[in-house]
Amino acid sequence: MLPSHYRRCYGCGPDHGAGLRMRLTVGQQASIHAQLEVTDDHQGAPGLAHGGLLACALDEALGTVAWLLGTPAVTARLETEYLTPVPVGSVLHIHARCTGVTGRKISLVAEGRRNGPTGSPAVRATALFLAVDLEHFTTHGRVHDVAQAMADPDFDTIRRAFGINP
Ligand SMILES: CCCCCCCC/C=C\CCCCCCCC(=O)SCCNC(=O)CCNC(=O)[C@H](O)C(C)(C)COP(=O)(O)OP(=O)(O)OC[C@H]1O[C@@H](n2cnc3c(N)ncnc32)[C@H](O)[C@@H]1OP(=O)(O)O
Q1: What domains can you pick out in the chain, each with its CATH number?
Q2: Of 65, 114, 115, 156, whose CB count within 10 A is highest?
Q3: Is the overall model pTM greater than 0.90, yes or no?
Q4: What is the ipTM of this complex?
Q5: CA nearest 4: which of 165, 157, 163, 164?
Q6: Ligand 1 pocket: which residues have CB below 6 Å?
């Protein structure tokens, strides 16, 4: 199981009060398994998960695969297919994997299944991530947030955990 890459991440951060708190584990080769518990807080239509939130959960798993490759990367393109509704109370089992790397471009796919990791897919995504350097975050984000993340006493452990070379 991987630690959260950033404690305040909406997808996986333990310090995010309203976040998804996804649990992510490393799979075979360049892949990630993740689970999302769909709760009352995740509804779009009554009793059903919001589609944008499901896209977020897939994005989190896809981004974690990209980091397994040893570089921070950001989503450039994310295409999502919704195959069946996902009700509150279900656990979405997500599998995300890398399908190819060309220069800075990282191609990935993900599937989310209900009723266990071998259930039929409810949602699918195809994505392009672009590898970026740390400057991307300090230029476009807030320097003090980046500094705070790097000052986390667990930051070295987090970096080492992501230093798995598939
Ligand atoms: C101390 C702390 C540090 C922590 C670091 C942690 C890292 C994370 C680690 C783990 C994360 C796990 C979980 C996270 C999951 C969530 C991920 C997100 O939600 S990310 C947020 C949303 N995404 C953005 O905000 C991007 C906004 N866009 C941009 O910044 C730029 O557009 C960017 C970087 C994507 C590309 O800009 P350019 O200037 O670098 O690159 P150009 O030259 O435009 O393109 C390069 C190549 O890519 C293609 N390309 C670019 N965008 C494309 C697109 N949308 N569709 C298709 N191709 C595209 C281009 O055609 C070009 O291809 P040709 O080299 O010519 O073949």
Answers
A1: 23-161 (3.10.129.10)
A2: 65
A3: yes
A4: 0.94
A5: 157
A6: 5, 11, 59-60, 63-64, 67, 72, 74-77, 105, 128, 130, 132, 137, 146, 149-150
